[in-house]
Design goal:
CATH superfamily of one domain: Winged helix-like DNA-binding domain superfamily/Winged helix DNA-binding domain
CATH class of one domain: Mainly Alpha
Protein name: MarR family transcriptional regulator
Pfam families: MarR_2 (PF12802)
Largest sheet: 3 strands, antiparallel
GO molecular function, one term: DNA-binding transcription factor activity
Organism: Psychromicrobium lacuslunae
InterPro entries: ArsR-like_HTH, HTH-type_Bedaq_tolerance, HTH_MarR-typ, WH-like_DNA-bd_sf, WH_DNA-bd_sf
Number of helices: 6
Strand order of the largest sheet: 3-5-4
Length: 152
């Protein structure tokens, strides 16, 4: 059963509205002195586990040199660890350090508290439905062919 054109148009509009709302709600340039982009890197690494810097850059859609600078800063701050890849000495393996894991826990607690304050009139069922819908949409977008963008 295909989704109707009007529903798709409304969904695209709401996705961008959600994106703007998320940007507005997370307007802090840094949390505990760590930039939001850096926290995003630590979060991705936490989800993926140890990986090569090149794979992480590809996942993030940024160039290796831009990521390298950010990883150097995160390593210096103690939030990630880097080591040579034993299978390829030219490559670097990165993983979240215990300090990075603690930072993510504090950030997640802070974000959860903010969201809880904004969803005071929601019940658990509504939150679960939203979670399922957002997860399904995110999976569909992540699994779409490269180069296909909603903003095009």
């Amino acid at each position: 059963m295909a989704v109707e054109d009007q529903t798709l148009a409304e969904l695209v509009s709401e996705v961008f509205r959600l994106f703007r709302a998320l940007k507005s709600a997370s307007h802090e340039p840094s949390i505990e002195g760590v930039g939001v982009a850096h926290i995003g890197i630590v979060g991705l690494l936490s989800q993926s586990g140890e990986c090569r810097a090149t794979a992480l850059a590809e996942t993030m859609g940024i160039g290796p040199s831009a990521l390298s600078r950010q990883l150097a800063e995160l390593d210096e701050q103690g939030y990630v660890t880097r080591r040579p890849d034993p299978e390829d000495g030219r490559a670097t393996l990165i993983e979240v350090s215990p300090q990075g894991t603690e930072l993510l826990a504090r950030v997640m607690a802070r974000r959860s508290a903010r969201l809880r304050a904004q969803l005071t009139d929601w019940d658990e069922g509504e939150a679960r439905q939203a979670l399922q819908a957002v997860s399904r949409l995110t999976d569909a977008l992540l699994n779409s062919p490269k180069g296909e963008s909603l903003s095009a």
